Amino acid sequence: MRIEAQDITREFGSTRAVDRASFVIERPMMIGVIGSSGAGKSTLLRMINRLTDASAGRLVVDGRDMLALRGREKRAWQAECAMIFQQFNLVPRLDVVSNVLHGLLNKRGMASALFNMWSRADIDRAVQILDRLGIAEQAVKRAEALSGGQQQRVAIARALMQDPRIILADEPIASLDPMNAQVVMDTLRRIHDEDGRTVIANLHTLDTARRYCDRVIGMRKGRIVFDGVPEQLTTGVARDIYGAGIGFTEATTSTAIETERARNADYAARLMAD
Ligand SMILES: Nc1ncnc2c1ncn2[C@@H]1O[C@H](COP(=O)(O)OP(=O)(O)O)[C@@H](O)[C@H]1O
Ligand SMILES: [Mg+2]
């Protein structure tokens, strides 16, 4: 699958949330989108899967402009690019496996969900996906009873239920503690590695993008100002992306994942030294 964004633009009144964004994805990869708050990251993802309409531009996938699709074809495209959100967007009082089955709404229709009538095969598949993500034993619990990290994995399971070619994740770890953040990022990476699905994740921290992604897109004020491999993402480049002046340090854009890892490694080293 070849994905080409050509000058995708979105205006809200006089604000250009995304300003002529162009990029090409030639093969499945894991891409991190970074940039300060308000840079246009969410709007870009939302335009890709048509949650937000673009003001201009094209998204050409296998020769077709996905931004021009209507009705059934638009829904078919939305099923191909599943979305994951910072706040998980599960139905809190509903059990986990039903939440996962909601990934089939596009294909099976609303009635299945309303009457909670799913085929045996669909339910088996939902449980298999939960098992793959290490949370099968939570299947009958209410979603709200799970930890944040587990809830995000349920959201990933719901996305996988759609069998999408692309997974779009909007700040998937921004509400999680370091340990859970790591589990969720490892899960997204695994889905890319094992299934060959393209993952595009908006990430609020540099180190996560560097560590997990094959490619990083940097946005500033609606524009793509960097597009390259993590090795090219020097501190100077990062400063450009974040538009930070004096006082910018990597620490201001770091999650605690690395800190936590360092602490664990340190602790392990001390244990061994004893
Ligand atoms: N629905 C909306 N209505 C008006 N302005 C919006 C809307 N969504 C986003 N914006 C504006 O577009 C810009 C980019 O926002 P967003 O895509 O959410 O950035 P990010 O995800 O990088 O924080 C911001 O200036 C934001 O205020
Ligand atoms: Mg955002």
Summarize the structure.
This protein has 274 residues and is an alpha/beta fold.
Q: How are the SSEs placed, and which strands pair?
A:
Layout: E1 3-12, E2 15-25, E3 30-34, H1 41-48, E4 56-61, E5 64-65, H2 71-80, E6 81-85, H3 96-101, H4 105-108, H5 110-114, H6 120-132, H7 148-161, E7 166-170, H8 178-195, E8 198-202, H9 206-212, E9 215-220, E10 223-228, H10 235-242, H11 257-273
Parallel strand pairs: 3-8, 3-9, 6-7, 7-8
Antiparallel strand pairs: 1-2, 1-4, 4-5, 9-10
The structure holds adenosine-5'-diphosphate and magnesium ion (MG).
Magnesium ion binds at residues 41-42, 170-171, 202.
Characterization of the model:
- Helices cover 40% and strands 22% of the residues.
- It is of the alpha/beta class and 274 residues long.
- It has a six-stranded mixed β-sheet, with helices on both faces. It has a four-stranded antiparallel β-sheet with strand order 2-1-4-5, with helices on one face.
- Bound molecules: adenosine-5'-diphosphate and magnesium ion.
- The site of magnesium ion has 5 residues, from helix 1.
- The site of adenosine-5'-diphosphate (ADP) has 11 residues, from strand 2 and helix 1.
